[in-house]
Amino acid sequence: MYRVGLTGGIGAGKSEVSKRLAAHGAVIIDADAIAREVVEPGTPGLAQVVAAFGPEVLLPDGRLDRPGLGDIVFADPELRARLNAIVHPLVGARMRELEESASPGSIVVHDVPLIAENNMASAYDLVVVVDVPPRLQLDRLVRHRDLTREQARARMAAQASREQRLGIAGIVVDNSGSLAELDRQVGDLWVELRRRAAQAAPAS
What we know:
204 residues; alpha/beta; 5-stranded parallel beta sheet
Protein backbone atom coordinates (compact mmCIF):
# COMPACT_ATOMS: atom_id res chain seq x y z
CA MET A 1 0.00 0.00 0.00
CA TYR A 2 1.28 3.46 -0.93
CA ARG A 3 -0.06 6.29 1.26
CA VAL A 4 -0.46 9.77 -0.21
CA GLY A 5 -1.51 12.90 1.68
CA LEU A 6 -3.42 15.27 -0.62
CA THR A 7 -3.83 18.80 0.67
CA GLY A 8 -4.37 22.39 -0.43
CA GLY A 9 -5.84 25.63 0.84
CA ILE A 10 -9.59 26.14 0.92
CA GLY A 11 -10.80 26.88 -2.62
CA ALA A 12 -7.65 25.48 -4.29
CA GLY A 13 -9.59 22.66 -5.96
CA LYS A 14 -8.35 19.69 -3.96
CA SER A 15 -11.66 17.85 -4.46
CA GLU A 16 -11.28 18.17 -8.27
CA VAL A 17 -7.88 16.47 -8.03
CA SER A 18 -9.29 13.86 -5.66
CA LYS A 19 -12.15 13.05 -8.06
CA ARG A 20 -9.73 12.59 -10.95
CA LEU A 21 -7.40 10.36 -8.91
CA ALA A 22 -10.40 8.20 -7.95
CA ALA A 23 -11.24 7.82 -11.65
CA HIS A 24 -7.67 6.58 -12.25
CA GLY A 25 -8.07 3.94 -9.53
CA ALA A 26 -6.87 5.53 -6.29
CA VAL A 27 -8.63 4.67 -3.03
CA ILE A 28 -9.78 8.05 -1.71
CA ILE A 29 -10.28 8.67 2.00
CA ASP A 30 -11.92 12.10 2.28
CA ALA A 31 -11.40 13.76 5.67
CA ASP A 32 -14.08 16.41 5.01
CA ALA A 33 -16.71 13.78 4.14
CA ILE A 34 -15.78 11.80 7.26
CA ALA A 35 -15.89 14.98 9.38
CA ARG A 36 -19.53 15.39 8.27
CA GLU A 37 -20.27 11.70 8.90
CA VAL A 38 -19.01 11.73 12.51
CA VAL A 39 -21.39 14.57 13.49
CA GLU A 40 -24.53 13.21 11.81
CA PRO A 41 -27.70 13.27 13.98
CA GLY A 42 -27.58 10.54 16.62
CA THR A 43 -23.78 10.23 16.68
CA PRO A 44 -21.66 10.63 19.83
CA GLY A 45 -19.69 13.26 17.88
CA LEU A 46 -22.71 15.53 17.46
CA ALA A 47 -23.63 15.10 21.14
CA GLN A 48 -20.10 16.24 22.11
CA VAL A 49 -20.27 19.29 19.81
CA VAL A 50 -23.64 20.33 21.25
CA ALA A 51 -22.30 19.85 24.80
CA ALA A 52 -19.34 22.12 23.97
CA PHE A 53 -21.07 24.81 21.89
CA GLY A 54 -24.73 24.70 22.94
CA PRO A 55 -27.96 23.69 21.15
CA GLU A 56 -27.90 26.86 19.02
CA VAL A 57 -25.43 25.11 16.68
CA LEU A 58 -28.26 22.78 15.57
CA LEU A 59 -30.68 23.36 12.70
CA PRO A 60 -34.42 22.85 13.36
CA ASP A 61 -34.19 19.30 11.94
CA GLY A 62 -31.47 18.34 14.44
CA ARG A 63 -28.54 18.47 12.01
CA LEU A 64 -25.42 20.51 12.72
CA ASP A 65 -25.52 24.06 11.36
CA ARG A 66 -22.08 23.80 9.77
CA PRO A 67 -21.92 27.35 8.31
CA GLY A 68 -23.10 28.82 11.62
CA LEU A 69 -20.57 26.83 13.62
CA GLY A 70 -17.92 27.73 11.03
CA ASP A 71 -18.54 31.45 11.59
CA ILE A 72 -18.11 30.95 15.35
CA VAL A 73 -14.88 28.90 15.25
CA PHE A 74 -13.10 30.60 12.35
CA ALA A 75 -13.24 33.87 14.30
CA ASP A 76 -11.74 32.37 17.47
CA PRO A 77 -8.65 30.09 17.53
CA GLU A 78 -9.51 28.81 21.02
CA LEU A 79 -12.99 27.68 19.96
CA ARG A 80 -11.56 26.18 16.77
CA ALA A 81 -9.12 24.16 18.89
CA ARG A 82 -12.02 22.99 21.08
CA LEU A 83 -13.99 21.81 18.02
CA ASN A 84 -10.90 20.12 16.53
CA ALA A 85 -10.26 18.28 19.80
CA ILE A 86 -13.71 16.68 19.44
CA VAL A 87 -13.82 16.00 15.72
CA HIS A 88 -10.21 15.13 14.77
CA PRO A 89 -9.86 11.95 16.90
CA LEU A 90 -13.19 10.64 15.51
CA VAL A 91 -12.11 11.41 11.94
CA GLY A 92 -8.68 9.83 12.49
CA ALA A 93 -10.19 6.60 13.81
CA ARG A 94 -12.59 6.32 10.86
CA MET A 95 -9.80 7.05 8.34
CA ARG A 96 -7.66 4.27 9.84
CA GLU A 97 -10.60 1.87 9.57
CA LEU A 98 -11.09 2.71 5.88
CA GLU A 99 -7.38 2.41 5.13
CA GLU A 100 -7.20 -1.01 6.77
CA SER A 101 -10.03 -2.22 4.51
CA ALA A 102 -8.13 -1.24 1.30
CA SER A 103 -6.34 -4.00 -0.59
CA PRO A 104 -2.56 -4.27 0.04
CA GLY A 105 -1.43 -3.02 -3.40
CA SER A 106 -3.65 0.09 -3.36
CA ILE A 107 -2.58 3.69 -3.76
CA VAL A 108 -4.50 5.24 -0.86
CA VAL A 109 -5.00 9.01 -1.08
CA HIS A 110 -5.89 10.77 2.16
CA ASP A 111 -7.70 13.95 1.11
CA VAL A 112 -6.91 16.11 4.17
CA PRO A 113 -7.11 19.92 4.34
CA LEU A 114 -4.92 20.40 7.42
CA ILE A 115 -1.75 18.34 6.85
CA ALA A 116 0.55 21.38 7.21
CA GLU A 117 -1.38 22.82 10.18
CA ASN A 118 -1.23 19.56 12.13
CA ASN A 119 2.38 18.65 11.20
CA MET A 120 1.17 15.41 9.60
CA ALA A 121 3.43 15.31 6.52
CA SER A 122 5.61 12.53 7.95
CA ALA A 123 2.54 10.27 8.28
CA TYR A 124 2.49 9.74 4.48
CA ASP A 125 4.83 8.27 1.88
CA LEU A 126 4.29 11.43 -0.19
CA VAL A 127 2.44 14.74 0.20
CA VAL A 128 0.78 16.26 -2.88
CA VAL A 129 -0.20 19.93 -2.58
CA VAL A 130 -2.85 21.50 -4.83
CA ASP A 131 -1.77 25.12 -5.23
CA VAL A 132 -3.31 28.34 -6.54
CA PRO A 133 -2.36 31.97 -5.93
CA PRO A 134 -4.22 33.46 -2.91
CA ARG A 135 -5.99 36.01 -5.14
CA LEU A 136 -7.55 33.21 -7.18
CA GLN A 137 -8.37 31.26 -4.00
CA LEU A 138 -10.28 34.28 -2.66
CA ASP A 139 -12.17 34.79 -5.95
CA ARG A 140 -13.24 31.14 -6.06
CA LEU A 141 -14.48 31.17 -2.46
CA VAL A 142 -16.60 34.27 -3.10
CA ARG A 143 -17.94 32.96 -6.43
CA HIS A 144 -18.58 29.29 -5.57
CA ARG A 145 -19.19 29.15 -1.82
CA ASP A 146 -21.43 32.16 -1.22
CA LEU A 147 -18.93 33.71 1.18
CA THR A 148 -18.28 37.41 1.55
CA ARG A 149 -14.70 38.51 0.92
CA GLU A 150 -14.29 38.98 4.70
CA GLN A 151 -15.55 35.45 5.45
CA ALA A 152 -13.30 34.02 2.72
CA ARG A 153 -10.26 35.87 4.08
CA ALA A 154 -11.01 34.63 7.63
CA ARG A 155 -11.14 31.02 6.43
CA MET A 156 -7.92 31.43 4.47
CA ALA A 157 -6.21 33.07 7.48
CA ALA A 158 -7.28 30.14 9.71
CA GLN A 159 -5.23 27.76 7.56
CA ALA A 160 -1.50 27.39 6.98
CA SER A 161 0.11 29.91 4.64
CA ARG A 162 0.80 29.04 1.02
CA GLU A 163 4.54 28.91 1.85
CA GLN A 164 3.96 26.44 4.71
CA ARG A 165 1.97 24.12 2.44
CA LEU A 166 4.52 24.28 -0.37
CA GLY A 167 7.23 23.56 2.22
CA ILE A 168 5.82 20.06 2.85
CA ALA A 169 5.04 19.25 -0.81
CA GLY A 170 6.65 16.26 -2.48
CA ILE A 171 4.70 17.10 -5.65
CA VAL A 172 2.76 20.30 -6.47
CA VAL A 173 -0.33 20.37 -8.70
CA ASP A 174 -0.91 23.87 -10.07
CA ASN A 175 -4.68 24.35 -10.36
CA SER A 176 -4.69 27.93 -11.60
CA GLY A 177 -5.39 26.92 -15.22
CA SER A 178 -8.20 25.15 -17.10
CA LEU A 179 -9.83 21.82 -16.18
CA ALA A 180 -8.19 20.32 -19.28
CA GLU A 181 -4.80 21.37 -17.92
CA LEU A 182 -5.73 19.86 -14.55
CA ASP A 183 -6.69 16.58 -16.28
CA ARG A 184 -3.26 16.46 -17.90
CA GLN A 185 -1.44 17.16 -14.62
CA VAL A 186 -3.43 14.56 -12.69
CA GLY A 187 -2.76 11.99 -15.43
CA ASP A 188 0.98 12.68 -15.04
CA LEU A 189 0.63 12.56 -11.25
CA TRP A 190 -1.05 9.13 -11.42
CA VAL A 191 1.78 7.75 -13.56
CA GLU A 192 4.29 9.08 -11.01
CA LEU A 193 2.33 7.68 -8.03
CA ARG A 194 2.23 4.24 -9.64
CA ARG A 195 5.97 4.42 -10.34
CA ARG A 196 6.72 5.36 -6.72
CA ALA A 197 4.32 2.74 -5.35
CA ALA A 198 6.02 0.03 -7.44
CA GLN A 199 9.44 1.20 -6.25
CA ALA A 200 8.32 1.15 -2.61
CA ALA A 201 6.65 -2.28 -2.82
CA PRO A 202 8.61 -5.03 -1.07
CA ALA A 203 10.16 -7.52 -3.47
CA SER A 204 8.14 -10.75 -3.56
